[in-house]
TrEMBL record, chain A:
Residues 12-181 form the Cytochrome c assembly protein domain. It is a multi-pass membrane protein. The keyword Cell membrane applies. Its main location: membrane. NCBIfam families: ccmC. The keyword Metal-binding does not apply. It is found in: Cell inner membrane; Membrane. GO terms for molecular function: heme binding; heme transmembrane transporter activity. This is Heme exporter protein C. Pfam families: Cytochrom_C_asm. The chain crosses the membrane at residues 20-41, 61-81, 93-112, 124-143, 155-177, 197-219. Belongs to the CcmC/CycZ/HelC family.
From TrEMBL, chain B:
Required for the export of heme to the periplasm for the biogenesis of c-type cytochromes. This is Heme exporter protein B. It is a multi-pass membrane protein. It comes from the Bacteria. One of its GO terms (biological process) is cytochrome c biosynthetic process.
Amino acid sequence: MTLIDLANPTKFLALTARVLPWLAGATAILLLVGLYQAAMAPDDYQQGATVKIMFIHVPNAWLSMFVWGVMSLSALGTLVWRHPLADVAAKAAAPIGAAFTFLALVTGSLWGRPMWGTYWEWDARLTSVLILFLMYLGLMALWRAVDDPSRAARAAAVLTLVGALNLPIIKFSVDWWNTLHQPASVMRMGGTSLDKAFLIPLLVMAVGFSLLFVTLHLAAMRNEILRRRVRSLQMMQASQQAA
Amino acid sequence: MTALAALIRRDIKIALRVGGGALIGVLFFLTVTVLMPFAIGPDLPLLTRLGPAILWLGALLASLLTLDRLFTADHEDGSLDLIVMGRTPLELACAAKALAHWLAAGVPLIVATPVLGLLLNLDASATSAVALTLLVGTPALTFTGMIGAALAVTLHRGGLLLAVLVLPLSIPVLIFGVAASQAAITGPLPFGTPFSILCALSLVSLVVGPFAAAASLRHGLD
């Protein structure tokens, strides 16, 4: 079965109906194992128990960017190949990505309170994630502004690709701006210096959250397809009654 | 080439004549700048410190306000369809329209900057630094904003949606524009570093803006 075969929404619905329970089960198991390991992980010698926020925060932050990547691929699918499911995928991904970004912001803020003594610091990473969140909300506003889904899909695809080009530039300029205004006060967390006791639960949680995204995304795509079917049935009914 | 020149000349004429509304942007810029001291207080040293930021924010909002006009009027009277179907490549036509818009609505903002700098207690070197950064930075605002204007016109929505889509994209321009002005006034950073990055941002938007706007017009109009 290739990507082209999935262009048929009926085949897509049949396939996902079989796959989704397994995906949901795997997600639940991985997240439970990850949470257990995270709870059992030792406290950090400096940060104490608050370091455990990391196990939620980092997977969410990584997914917040990954989802924009998924949407960019879908946008290419919409504009270049006119794949019928690409705009469904892009539309379904936006609220999920916004939710992950919001969670990354909230957990980052909660982590910042004991570490930096404030809920909000204009730290480079927090700031660029906040801008990413604003862009997700703008994209969702664009989707909601038009009632014709295929029109909205093409506009949203252009905006998604422009956003994908712009996000690295925004990230770079915020980093630059941040070092200009406040040199210190940023925590250090070298990726490679992470101890195994932290690294393994973190990886389990990252895979678990990624599977959670796939599950939610497929379910949301199914909902969107069914919603469009209901809409076209209602339109047909209305036109029959009028005739 | 003559077609593009004619397009630029036509757009500037329409913008400057009655009903065009290019100069309303300058009026808005002036009003916003005059409002700031009422919120902050008539504290001259503080206004000097905030001056570049106020001028940049005012210019950003003013250019956003006039962006709505970039495609809407042409869409309403049907000439946008002619431009899309015409033999001139749509990317070039979009670039010409944005250039005309910048000449009619962006340049007056830069010309007004020295007067507004006076109100904010900026000295001559500070004012010229802000004017120079605006001269280099406002094309980036117009050319990225054009993407939002093209999206908004295909969706028959303008105003707030345009602002929500365009403002996050203009954050880098704002950062480097204000940073370059501040560097010229207080240092310690050399003026050249943020200024050349600002130039780079403008050049990138000059390339990306017309293509994205043309793509959204081509896919969106029917």
